[in-house]
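Changelog entry: the Alpha-1,2-mannosyltransferase ALG9-like record was regenerated in this release. Current contents:
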Amino acid sequence: MALATRQRRPLPSDLPATASSPTTSYSKVDKPKRSDGENEGVDKGLGWLLPLICLGMLRHMSATSNIIHDCDEVFNYWEPLHYLLYKSGFQTWEYSSQFALRSYLYILLHKLVGWPASLWFGEEKVRVFYAVRIFLAVLSVISDAALVVALSRKYGKRLASYTLAMLCLASGCFFASTSFLPSSFSMYAMSLSSALFLLNKPAMAVSVAATGVILGWPFSILAFLPLTIYSLVKRFKSVFLTGVVTSVILMVLSLLVDYRYYKRWTSSVINLMVYNVLGGGESHLYGTEGPSFYLRNGFNNFNFCFVFALLFLAILPIAKKKYAPELLVVVSPVYLWIAFMSLQPHKEERFLYPIYPLICVAASAVIESFPDLFRDKYNPNDTSVLVMIAKFLRPLALGLILCSSHARTFSLINGYSAPIEIYKHLDYYDDAGTGSVLCVGSEWHRFPSSFLIPDYVGQVRWLDDGFTGLLPIPFNSSLGGTSAAPSYFNNKNKASEEQYLTDPEQCTFLIELQLQRPYPTRGSDLSTWEIVAALPYLDRELSPPLYRSFFIPYHWQQKNVFGQYRLLRRIPK
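Regenerated structure tokens:
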């Protein structure tokens, strides 16, 4: 009896390749591409047009109606720019060559727009002011639009649309987008860097991040760390080389520009870091706030959007497949930055600017995930009542955020725009003659910059109203201008004898805020001063917090208390 031999089963390689018997396993890559006609209905996400139009309209509104939120914006950025263009303007101690804490490279970036605008508009310096603001708006539009497009391609239209709506209307973004501040520039870099990261361009993302840190605000390096570290892990060589090359080029350029203006070899970027970190900087001299400051400030500027943003980590276990790890990396600076900045004694609203776009992204992700909280994880097509209710709540939550944001924006613009608007009235009183003196007392911190001062006004001088800190003093060309190290400047915030006008009789005009207080002001003497212009100004101390913070129809005017922001002219004797 012959032994039965066991036959081996033929291998796939032994079989002839046929259409019904492919040589390799099927994958999505093998799926034949559709013709152009078959691809017409495919969702390609949001294009560039809609974000550019929407953001362009809102940023233009911001550029033309934004108020000055921080006197540092005026004295550390608008005034040096004014000096570079017109050879007049106020200097702060940070710009003394003895300390050299501020970068002229950042100022030069804006001079690229300010210089041709000054040639075009001539004596109309106000138009130069708004031209620079339009430039800031354009930077914001491009960076935020890139972020929206990247979100759309990565996560779909809904998340991108929610983010677009919040970037357009959130009060924080509306005001920060056209503020002349390094923290705003870092905010632009954050949006663009995050967009490039989501578009799988880590090297370019880190290069933009380095630009935001060196050219913008050095302290924002902490906010860019998660993106940078993840990018290095992903593609070390290209990311590292690109980041190092960008950083070296910008640091060398900054060094050369600083030498050009300070007339000594120094690095303002390093000086600023040393003063505030290694040198035991005394920023507490300029005011301190409690640990809850940024939580309160975040709600004021973003209302429920801020609350939803903080809940991003809470919904992450449910939406992990959608958002981890890339979106988690993008929004993680929200938590890192708020925690770090809350530990610092000196706090200011502008310090949160770099993470403003990320707050909108995180909140949009939470709202977009509402149905996932109730959906059966084994049934992605679950249409239960709870899921349908959650879907209905998404536009409701978004609408609440946008309405509250508009109320906040409207309240701030209409309540506090008087300081910018009142200075524009000086244009109507040039009959006062060349060399007129404009005096400002306790309202020095709301001075909107020399761009709003007509040429016939020879000087803007401060009057002593009891402030004991160091005030800005005009650049002194005879001492060297930008390279000067005047003896009257110090880094201890101690007042200088040079900062006040000793004889108020020299004042031709006076700017003053008249509030309902029991004590008189200089402008109260109507035998000496004539009121030539007056605008309402919201009295923060006497107005209820809810009504002063948000515009509520029919109640905003009735519940709030208003003072008068006045321009007064001395009556000839």
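The two ends are 141 Å apart (CA to CA).
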